[in-house]
């Protein structure tokens, strides 16, 4: 194991724009009554959970105020227990959740700093890895590659290994590259190193042979080989992917007692949100930090564990008391979101899961409207019927953003999108390509990365992305020449342009590109925003978009302007590149007044006054391809997104004849109505006359 410096934040200058990581002796103390102030807004159970000093699992049902409870717990540690904010580690799954929690904490503490180690698993682990990059055989100032750039690395390795487009030899694979990337990600989520992957695969094959479990033996063996070369390519580029951010610090803490002790001693208390969603790497990372004192506060809900397909394991929340024998468990069951009928329906559906830790949601709100269960002839009729009902509710005063259409699989969105377009209803498909994932943004950031380290091989991936945008004659043959020259001279691809054997026009265009990038990079008078703007103009990228006849060109130019504006919030290229790599959502995405369309998985954590749950048919939901217990939990999540009105619909024919989802039959008759409420009210009015 490599040696580590005494300062756990050495080499972390790029984080200086965030709050300091250590308390200064002169740090002003927060008001002692801060917790009393926030406690007045809590229920007795929430307050009891927030003030508990030992290990605790807060089993927080949907809409029961888990964020308020978690925020109050942090405030209690700072204001009452007097734990310095810098000695608290609080982890979430999204940047949005971390920002919301930090804002709440600062508000309660009268402007005092929130914990500086409050963020996502990957964001916090990135800070840990930047302290000692040698544990991953990296150099300081390494790059974090996003999923798209990672795929490009893997694709080149597959090509070099002559796997071509058919990873694992499966000619019927829908996306061999995606399958390979997923397998590598799973290696890392399970803390399997490149050197240990082959042995792990052989053990898995032997186990499968004994149990007669079907297994893609060739594909797994190929994945182990690709993993080793892929990791070598990342290391040569001085880069990590997201999986590395947790893999290497967690392995170091598990294998090196001194390293684990040093990091575990940095914090006196840990808090983890959405504990039901952790995978093995995240679970191991948290346990390592809690290894010395065991003071850990976890909030989660096993009824909302719906991400098993991407590696999370529900058993970690269910075995919490085994991991921390002195832990208490407190249930939050009062729901502040939904009406009585909605909660009764959700309770009835989830009650059939016999393995759950158990709780029953209740509300002090009124019963509200019963759930609508509406049958349609086919998918087209369903889409038209849902849109008609949306228009009716709009006429009654609902805003577009109050309404969401939720479905099990993304392919179901098309019919609803077309029906909404015909009705001229503004809408958005949530989960579409995020801001930092858009091609023009990635291109602009690649130019910035190239300018930041033009002579370092870690800029090679950026070079490959933008050298031919706009076209400069760098096709496959020209790139092979540049790659060969760079390898021979052991220089960056940009530097290799000086001597690579290229056609005259191609060489001239490449040298001009290199000169433009270097000239802008060397002028230290430019702000970061100016640098991006100049790079876009000097390389002809912005002109390419202006001259394009594509309908999307205007939107792409506006996206670049948004990036330039955002760049003003960062001091260095590294800050912006790290932020972009770790970002999870497009700024302002939720501010427009539109009907939301999204999958049930995307809807977790959200709430809407009017929810339409579409395609509740056997085979569609629950999915024939999903885990039965997890599908039931997904139905529970779907129902509890609704605040006032929930409508369930299904078709008699969708790609074949179908029947209602079994989850429909789980809902008691007294809490639902067959058909639309407005139709039942009309019938009742006619009978009354």
Q: Can you lay out the helices and strands and say which pair or pack?
A:
Elements: H1 34-39, H2 44-51, E1 56-60, H3 66-79, E2 88-92, H4 95-108, E3 117-120, H5 121-131, E4 143-144, H6 147-160, H7 176-189, H8 194-211, H9 217-236, E5 239-240, H10 242-255, H11 257-264, E6 269-272, H12 280-289, E7 296-300, H13 315-318, H14 320-323, E8 328-332, H15 340-350, E9 371-378, H16 379-395, E10 403-407, H17 413-422, E11 427-429, H18 439-452, H19 460-466, H20 476-489, H21 493-496, H22 504-522, H23 528-538, H24 541-547, H25 553-567, H26 573-582, E12 595-599, H27 600-603, E13 608-613, H28 628-639, E14 642-653, H29 662-666, E15 672-674, H30 677-688
Parallel strand pairs: 1-7, 1-8, 2-3, 2-6, 4-5, 6-7, 9-14, 9-15, 10-12, 10-13, 11-12, 13-14
Helix pairs in contact: 2-3, 3-4, 5-10, 6-7, 6-9, 8-9, 10-11, 10-12, 15-28, 16-17, 18-19, 18-22, 18-23, 22-23, 23-25
Structural write-up:
There is one protein chain. This protein is α/β, with parallel strands linked by helices and 689 residues long. The chain has 30 helices and 15 strands. Helix 4 (95-108) links the parallel strand 2 (88-92) and strand 3 (117-120). It is globular, with a radius of gyration of 27 Å. It starts with 33 loop residues before the first helix and ends with a helix. The model is unreliable at 1-26, 165-174 and 584-590 (pLDDT under 50).
